[in-house]
Amino acid sequence: MWGVVVGAVGIVLAAWIAFGRALFGVAGSLTPVYALTLGIVVVVLHLFIAQGFIRTAQRGFGHRTATYGTLFASWGCAIALGLLIPDITADGLQTILTGTGEPGRGIAIGFANPIGIIMIVFAAIALVLARGDALGRADAPPEEEDGF
To answer: For residue 36, with 0-12 CB atoms within 10 Å meaning exposed, 13-18 middle and 19 or more buried, which class applies?
Structure first.
C-alpha cells in the first residue's frame, strides 16, 4: 500500500514543482524547463522508492524510521520548493509567495536552490534506505560488540 502512496505523492509533487505556479497565475517560460528537469528527477526517484517499499512489503520486512523520516523531509522540501521556485513572466521573475516584490523575491530565490538540493538528497537517501529495507536490513538483529 505504501509503495502506491509513495509513487502517487511523487507524481503529485513533481507536478506541483513544475506546474504549481500556474494555479496562482505565475507560470512562465521556465515551466517546461522545470517539468523536463526537476519533474522527471522527482518522479523517477519516487518510483524507485515506491519499488523498494513494494518489495519490502512483499518480502514481509519492515521499514526503518529513518526511511520514513528522510522521505517525509524530502516531501516537505518539495512543497517549499514549489512555493519558492521562480518563473519568468511578463512582469519579470516571480514566485508564488512573493510575486515580483523585492527583497522577498530575492530571498525566496536564494532559498529555492538549497531547498531543491536538499529535497533531492533526502529523496536519494530515502531510496538507499528503502532498497536496504527490501533486503531485510531494517529487521536484522543488532550486532553485539566483543567486550575486548
So the answer is: exposed
